[in-house]
Please model this.
Amino acid sequence: MDILFLLVPLSVVLVLLILGGLWWAIYRGQFEDVEAEGQRILKDD
Model:
């Protein structure tokens, strides 16, 4: 039972880090044009 006092806050921190990373990626424009990146690697420049 004592392990829950450690695991619950750690899981909350992990969720906040994941949400922060997702927010950062969206804010920086990582998902703006996903199809162009797929086409870019196929071009032979």
